[in-house]
Design goal:
six-stranded mixed beta sheet, alpha/beta, 6 helices
Length: 165
């Protein structure tokens, strides 16, 4: 099967949920969550859920698990991927992932290095699958969200979902 034949099965519209992990952001101040939703919708994807969840690994896990049985095929989280004591999104998400997409974090940090230098190594962005759901965890900065969405998530979203069918 050629690459073109393989890509014909890609999904053109994916149901997505967005979770901002933060103790301080509100719907009015959550620029990163708003950017993710805007970028998804501008590419024809649906946003079937949006939440702001405190930096608490158990609450993050619970929220993602509750989405696994719903309409969302993809969950994109923003925030909590750094090294500060309250940054525990990586631990919460890593415990849920059944198949890691190691290339996502590696490529994200490589692209980040091109933009911000060595500080990119501080990101613990991660992605993987749980059942038929794809989970992405991005940093909380709007610039990092834009980078991850434009360069990695949006170009492959429909293909990833098609592969899990």
């Amino acid at each position: 099967m050629t690459s073109d034949e393989h890509r014909r099965k890609d999904v053109s519209s994916v149901a997505c949920a967005v979770i901002t992990v933060s103790d301080t952001r509100t719907p009015e101040t959550d620029t990163s969550g708003a950017l993710i939703r805007e970028m998804l919708e501008s590419r024809g994807h649906g946003v079937v859920g949006y939440d702001i969840v405190p930096d608490d690994p158990e609450r993050v896990r619970e929220r993602v698990l509750s989405l696994c049985d719903g309409a969302a095929r993809v969950v994109i989280l923003t925030g909590g991927t750094g090294l500060a004591p309250r940054d525990t999104t990586h631990e919460a998400i890593s415990s849920l992932i059944e198949k890691r997409l190691d290339g996502f974090g590696e490529l994200f940090r490589m692209l980040g290095y091109q933009e911000i230098g060595a500080a990119a190594m501080l990101s613990r962005a991660v992605a993987g699958t749980r059942g038929q759901m794809v989970i992405f965890s991005l940093p909380g900065s709007t610039a990092a969200v834009r980078l991850g969405m434009e360069k990695l998530i949006l170009p492959e979203l429909g293909h990833l979902v098609a592969l899990l069918r």
